Amino acid sequence: MTVQRVDGPATAQQEFTIEELSRQVGMSPRNIRAHQARRILAPPVRRGRTVVYQEQHLRRLETILSLQRQGFNLTAIEAMFGVRAGQPRTDGLAPLMQRLAAESPALVDALTRHGVVAWKENGTVQMVRPRALRAALELHRSGLPARQTVQVLVEVLDRIGRPVEELLRATGDRILSLPGDPARPRAVTWDEWSDSAELLAQGLIDLLSEAFRVVAENRGPTSVVDIVGRRSGQSTVMLVETAAVMDLG
Questions:
Q1: Residue 9 lies in a domain
Q2: What is the extent of the structural domain holding 133?
């Protein structure tokens, strides 16, 4: 591999073209550019009419690959790097998670297994999917202990894992069976197949996430009313009338 080196002081560092960086890290140039578009990789440095990548780009790509090998998808990695658009604030979550780590490390380990949080090298807890934690903690407003609502989140994640995987496979098979755009050339190299698979995976995640939200919002109020009615013995009709004021947005 040809490596460009900047002449100058001792702080000079290696520089790469995108093809050299691609070979060095084992990632296609197209994926490297896609990571730039996601803002999990900084833009290259411009040298007149050319652009070069530096050692920090190489280290970031190695970190991304390491996280992917640990099971984190690009959506989670965006959240870990703090670049996701519309990502909720994590104010108050970090202290709570540190207390949970001290009081119930098994619970935090379970969240780590699902990619909701991650352990840092210094032993602290990093938020990966704060939206999921925030949703669990919103139940705290109904008078439930935070630790128990987080435990419920873990139980839900455990329970839906297999059905969601089966639905992903079925939906993926269905999409791949659709007739393609005849004007779009088919992937012929491994890199092209890899890029297509990444786009398909993200599309499936977005589709099923929104579909689940639609079903939960449509059926959630009635389901909760039924549960409360059975436990309290009150009239379901009366509870439905009370719940009718809910605004799901």
A1: no
A2: 92-178+195-236
Domains identified in the chain, total number: 2
Examine the fold and report which residue of 32, 57, 81 is the final residue of a domain before the chain moves on. 81
Q: pTM score, two decimals?
A: 0.61
Are 55 and 92 contacting, i.e. CB atoms less than 8 angstroms apart? no
pLDDT along the chain (249 residues), means of 10: 44 82 91 87 86 92 88 78 62 80 90 85 81 85 84 94 91 84 57 64 85 88 76 55 44
Please, where are the H alpha helices in the chain?
18-25, 29-37, 55-69, 74-81, 93-103, 105-113, 130-138, 146-176, 190-232, 236-243
Q: How far apart are CA 80 and CA 82, in angstroms?
A: 5
Q: Record the tokens describing residue 59, joined without a space.
A: 């280290």
Token pair listed for 107:
């619970």
